[in-house]
Amino acid sequence: MHVQSIIDEINQLGEEIVKKKKQLAELRKEVPEQEVENYRFRDRDKEEVTLAELFDDKNELIVIHNMGVSCNYCTLWADGFNGVYHHLIERAAFVVSTPDEPGVQEDVAAERGWKFPMVSTKGTTFKEDMGYAKDGYNHPGVSTFRKDDAGKIYHYAHTPLGPGDDFCSVWHLFDLLPGGPADFKPRRKINRETSLQLTNNIAIQVKDFEKAVRFYEETIGMKVEKDFGDETRLSFNGMNFFMERSDGNQVFFEFATDEFDDMKERLLEKGCEITKEYSEKSVMMADPYGMKFHLFESSNQ
Length: 301
Hints:
Layout: H1 3-28, E1 34-36, E2 40-42, E3 48-50, H2 51-54, E4 60-65, H3 72-88, E5 93-98, H4 102-112, E6 118-120, H5 126-130, E7 133-134, E8 137-138, E9 141-147, E10 153-160, H6 170-174, E11 196-198, E12 201-206, H7 209-220, E13 223-227, E14 231-236, E15 239-245, E16 250-257, H8 260-269, E17 273-279, E18 282-286, E19 292-297
Parallel strand pairs: 4-5, 5-6, 12-15, 16-19
Antiparallel strand pairs: 1-10, 2-3, 4-9, 7-8, 9-10, 11-16, 12-16, 13-14, 14-15, 17-18, 18-19
């Protein structure tokens, strides 16, 4: 076959695929939406949050059915959603759900730098009812919802997630390579140099606590996420800032590691000191040069 004929066929197939996708979107509109209950989940603070509350100020919602910390592929998809999250919420609310405990979700999100909100579906029938859990096994997918003026919630559409779908660009880019995807398997760790993973959590201890919170909220533009009394969690461009009332002014950053004991001993040998021990796998440390950081064992293993 002549090269130009092959190129013409490629272009024709591409146009047909685009046309079929538009037909698919129109066909989905013909499926009657189903009213669903106002499910109750737990957020990163282990507090109850309802499905209706996940809509925030929108009337449409996208919920990702992520399999959780056990699935490297789900982590890959979530990394991709994270990159476009600020675009998605211009149109609709967006939430990632997993069967993990909220504490595990918080650790993984901090380690990956995820900006989107997460909810734990553990102890609910949400995934089963949406069709993404069966016989004790979770499956990846996405569901969309609509909320009317009366507060009723409707399940509008859903589709599974997996290699080659429209929701992860990796395989489409690999398809353009001479060798294709080959034996690609997603890595969970971002840092390849050591077992340490820098999280998106920063703690700031300040003397003028109320004034500092007000300054970072009103002048800098940070969003107050949670008030704990003597500590306030703020967010800014995907970073979490924990403002703490203190007698002094200090800044702390944070590392996660899946080799906690070995890394702790290595840091101690290099002159670091443990300044506070929260548990066997969570300590505050000071390096020989005046910086302080939190070291904890990763849940993302």
